[in-house]
Design goal:
The structure is a single chain. The protein has 383 residues and is an all-alpha fold. It has a domain at 64-155. It is 61% helix and 2% strand. The protein is built from 15 helices and four strands. The strands form two sheets. Strands 1-2 form a two-stranded antiparallel ribbon. It has a two-stranded antiparallel ribbon with strand order 3-4. β3 and β4 form a beta hairpin. α14 runs antiparallel to α15 (364-380). The chain starts with a helix and ends with a helix. The structure holds 2-acetamido-2-deoxy-beta-D-glucopyranose. This is Glycoside hydrolase family 76 protein.
């Protein structure tokens, strides 16, 4: 048995190590940004807030909890990137921020059983916390709320289909996005000093995902599993192809296992070759022509999420060769969003791959999605 002093020294040095890892990682996410792209992003963000944000409720008109969470995350991601404070009051006034600041919030009930929404809310709370920390403000309530929600998600893991967290607390479906988000928040939570349980969960999540059969022979992730635990063959949404990459890169940052980055790029490269039209992301529900298919209230945000999670992928990979590989594609997306997707008011519509011929729709989700493409490209695209 170790002496008390030795143990204390050991514990202290372990603490220092994990604090160091977190600090280094969240510092190196800083990077010179493209000013022109940032200006475009700020214009889109201003319109998003002016057209859709309700300061009374702290929600977006026509939004939903998980899409609002992403919009909040993006505003703070942008403020950190551009080094501005334009939306500094939004966090504490938002429904999610107010819920974090209130000690009486019942997160399980607020989340309504949606374990995927819970993952998005954790990410939003962390980004708002990063912003507060960068400005010397207390972020304790945000971090505590994120930890509470994380534990709710982690408690939704069981042995059905050999593992995985359920999509919903009703336990009807095991799917890709919920577990990809669990991988990300577990690995990033570890890097933020959450401790060994987070790393164990990240490894557990990836081991299960990689054996689940949800990634098809093309390298793309389908939506989820059937009742008999095989790939259900449902749509390969763009966001699934991005969130897996950021999660794997966060796990790489925690473990230094570069094969995780190679796994991520199988899927990123498949996205670029298979889920695009002339090098621009195209969701299967996108149609520039009127009268065709239209993405639903959730699907409207997916493409931007892919770009945001490529940003996070590159943050965590911290590798100039990998950055150079994806930079031109991020540049093409911001350009398409600007030239094809954006109307005269700086609202961004659902369709990026072609000029709008009546089929593009304009909602807070589609503007948020466009904002994400700009913010990612400001950091990693060409300038
Ligand atoms: C990122 O890469 C640079 C250059 O290779 C290196 O100096 C730095 O320590 C890396 N940061 C982290 C957090 O690994």
């Amino acid at each position: 048995m170790l002496g008390l002093t030795t143990s204390l020294v050991l514990i202290a040095s372990m603490l220092e190590l994990s604090v160091h890892a977190a600090t280094v990682l969240h510092q190196h996410q800083k990077r010179a940004q493209c000013a022109a792209t940032l200006t475009i992003a700020e214009n889109v963000a201003s319109t998003l807030q002016a057209h859709y944000y309700n300061t009374g409720t702290g929600m977006y008109n026509g939004g939903s909890l998980w899409t609002d969470a992403n919009a909040l995350e993006d505003l703070h991601n942008l403020m950190l990137g551009a080094d501005v404070d334009t939306w500094s009051t939004v966090a504490d006034g938002s429904y999610i921020g107010k819920s974090a600041l209130s000690s009486s919030t019942d997160w399980a009930s607020l989340l309504g059983g949606a374990n995927d929404d819970a993952g998005w809310v954790v990410m939003a709370l962390w980004k708002m916390a990063d912003y507060k920390s960068a400005r010397g403000l207390s972020n304790t309530a945000y971090l505590n709320a994120a930890a509470t929600i994380y534990n709710l998600i982690a408690g939704q893991w069981d042995d059905t289909c050999g593992g995985g967290v359920w999509w919903n607390t009703a336990h009807t479906y095991k799917n890709a996005i919920t577990n990809q988000l669990f991988l990300y928040v577990s690995a990033d939570g570890y890097l933020r000093g959450g401790g060994q349980t987070y790393l164990d969960n990240a490894n557990k999540a990836w081991n299960w995902l990689s054996a689940s059969g949800m990634r098809n022979s093309q390298g793309l992730w389908n939506d989820g599993l059937t009742d008999t635990c095989v790939n259900n063959g449902q749509t390969t949404w763009t966001y699934n192809q991005g969130v897996i990459a950021s999660g794997l890169a966060a796990l790489y940052a925690a473990t230094q296992d570069t094969t995780l980055l190679d796994q991520a790029e199988i899927t990123l490269d498949a996205t670029i070759s298979l889920l695009t039209d002339d090098d621009i992301l195209k969701e299967s529900c996108d149609d520039a022509l009127s009268g065709g298919s239209v993405c639903d209230v959730n699907q409207q945000l997916f493409k931007g999420l892919w770009t945001k999670h490529v940003q996070y992928y590159l943050d965590m990979a911290n590798d100039s060769t990998r950055t150079a590989k994806y930079s031109p594609f991020l540049g093409s997306q911001t350009s398409a969003v600007f030239h094809y997707g954006t109307d005269a008011n700086n609202d961004v519509g659902s369709v990026w791959y072609a000029p709008n011929q009546g089929g593009s729709i304009f909602t807070p989700k589609t503007s948020t999605s466009g904002l994400e493409a700009h913010v990612a490209a400001a950091k990693y695209g060409p300038c």
